[in-house]
């Protein structure tokens, strides 16, 4: 239950504290999205097709673990709440398993592949155990959608900063810490990010609280799943999340290949300690940060799903244009990439606030409180999108005849150009088209909030009070 006092604005401290949690997550997930495929193929020595297959097959585990974690979190009751305790309990295992992923033992080809399957599966399980409750925390941090948008904005500002730190400093750190030993450089760099992620998750735990206190969960798993599947707007949102993340990760996973083999970048520093990979990645992520910052201003003027439609169609057009830019026009590529990722910053910020909108709509329409399940199933869609987005470049590299650390054939170069530009174009276009079918608009959400606040407080609540 919640009271009218819980309708107060979130404090700056709490918004920052909540936002920091996604910085910790993106120290790893950003690292994986940018460098894991390259690490597996060019450093650890796994074939592109084998790495791509592994990234896809391990999602079978996530298909079970993600909804299961949501169901567990919804049924958790502790003195710290339902969702916050997992930030405290799982931070250290999550960090340790991420380091293990980049340990890089000297094994046979089969042994390396087995090691990759086991370690990647384990770190994704740990990510599920900490990030599903973290994401569900947004649903109980405030009963007001306006405050949840603000919290989501901070989340993706810090998520962008986390990935920006990875994009800007990962390759320089790999070189500084590992010297000529690229494997050692990756291992030590990940260790640094692991320690930081633990500390930051604990800060998030200490600075947030759960304002909405639900009654004890008494519905069955089947009832919860049935209620979720009845939420058609949530299904559209999940599908949109999948294709958006596929497009983004496919592009980011291709950056290092695009620069190394198409633009013939040798990894030399072009500004202070930064090479071209760091510059292209960093400027894109600065664009994402700007997108997250301007999202509340845009959302105050437009329907959320209309914004997502416009942003994704624009992104698709920019990527199609980028395919025709010659490799010597690096500055222009950086500019178009940055504007495109800015549109993604708006999209992803809106998506996560809309997941909790769907959770509230589901509770309003069915009477079932399933915030953890709603967010966990949504998180699985994003993890599936990440896996597919990383796998597609791997399969394309194999199909077009890529050979690691060699001069590439014309066919391989064409494949690299397509996976960097054309493939993401189609996925962002699909995301924009899907959102035409989303149905929870602002007027509906205001009615949902008023009704839920009245149920929880057991007293009338004025819709105008929510709008103010």
Lay out the secondary structure.
Layout: H1 12-44, H2 48-57, H3 59-74, H4 85-89, H5 91-101, H6 109-141, H7 145-178, H8 182-207, H9 221-229, H10 232-262, H11 276-299, H12 304-322, H13 330-366, H14 371-399, H15 410-434, H16 442-457, H17 463-467
Helix pairs in contact: 1-6, 1-7, 1-8, 1-10, 2-6, 2-14, 3-6, 3-14, 5-6, 5-8, 6-13, 6-14, 7-8, 7-11, 7-13, 10-11, 10-13, 10-14, 10-15, 11-13, 12-13, 12-15, 13-14, 13-16, 14-15
Structure in words:
It is built from 17 helices and no strands. It has 468 residues and is an all-alpha fold. The protein has helices at 12-44, 48-57, 59-74, 85-89, 91-101, 109-141, 145-178, 182-207, 221-229, 232-262, 276-299, 304-322, 330-366, 371-399, 410-434, 442-457, 463-467. It has a single domain, classed as MFS general substrate transporter like domains (Growth Hormone, Chain: A). It is 78% helix and 0% strand. The model is unreliable at 1-5 and 459-468 (pLDDT under 50).
């Amino acid at each position: 239950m919640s009271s009218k006092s819980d309708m107060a604005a979130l404090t700056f401290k709490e918004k920052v504290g909540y936002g920091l949690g996604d910085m910790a997550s993106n120290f790893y997930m950003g690292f994986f999205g940018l460098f894991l495929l390259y690490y597996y193929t060019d450093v650890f020595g796994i074939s592109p097709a084998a790495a791509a297959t592994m990234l896809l097959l391990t999602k079978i585990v996530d298909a079970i673990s993600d909804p299961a974690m949501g169901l567990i979190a919804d049924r958790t009751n502790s003195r710290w709440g339902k969702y916050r305790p997992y930030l405290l309990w799982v931070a250290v295992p999550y960090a340790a398993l991420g380091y293990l992923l980049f340990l890089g033992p000297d094994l046979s080809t089969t042994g390396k592949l087995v090691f990759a399957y086991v370690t990647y599966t384990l770190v994704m399980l740990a990510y599920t155990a900490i990030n599903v409750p973290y994401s569900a925390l947004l649903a109980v941090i405030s009963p007001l959608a306006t405050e949840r948008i603000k919290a989501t904005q901070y989340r993706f500002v810090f998520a962008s900063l986390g990935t920006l730190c990875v994009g800007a400093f990962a390759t320089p750190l790999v070189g500084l810490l590992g010297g000529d030993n690229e494997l050692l450089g990756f291992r030590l760099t990940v260790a640094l990010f692991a320690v930081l992620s633990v500390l930051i998750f604990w800060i998030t735990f200490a600075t947030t609280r759960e304002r909405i206190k639900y009654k004890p969960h008494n519905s069955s798993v089947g009832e919860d799943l049935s209620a979720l599947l009845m939420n058609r707007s949530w299904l559209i949102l999940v599908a949109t999340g999948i294709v958006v993340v596929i497009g983004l990760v496919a592009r980011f996973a291709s950056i290092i290949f695009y620069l190394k083999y198409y633009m013939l970048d040798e990894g030399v520093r072009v500004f202070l300690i930064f090479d071209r990979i760091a510059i292209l990645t960093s400027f894109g992520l600065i664009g994402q940060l700007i997108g997250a910052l301007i999202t509340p201003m845009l959302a105050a003027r437009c329907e959320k799903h209309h914004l997502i439609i416009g942003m994704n169609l624009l992104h698709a057009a920019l990527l199609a244009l980028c395919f025709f830019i010659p490799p010597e026009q690096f500055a222009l590529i950086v500019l178009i990439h940055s504007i495109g990722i800015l549109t993604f910053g708006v999209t992803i910020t809106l998506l996560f606030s809309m997941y909790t909108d769907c959770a509230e709509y589901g509770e309003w329409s069915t009477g079932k409180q399933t915030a953890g399940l709603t967010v966990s199933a949504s998180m699985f869609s994003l993890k599936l999108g990440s896996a597919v987005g990383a796998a597609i470049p791997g399969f394309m590299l194999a199909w077009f005849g890529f050979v690691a650390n060699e001069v590439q054939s014309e066919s391989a170069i064409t494949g690299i150009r397509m996976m960097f530009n054309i493939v993401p174009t189609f996925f962002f276009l699909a995301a924009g088209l899907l959102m035409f079918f989303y149905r929870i608009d602002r007027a509906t959400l205001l009615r949902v909030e008023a009704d839920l606040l009245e149920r929880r407080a057991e007293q009338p609540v004025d819709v105008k009070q929510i709008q103010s």
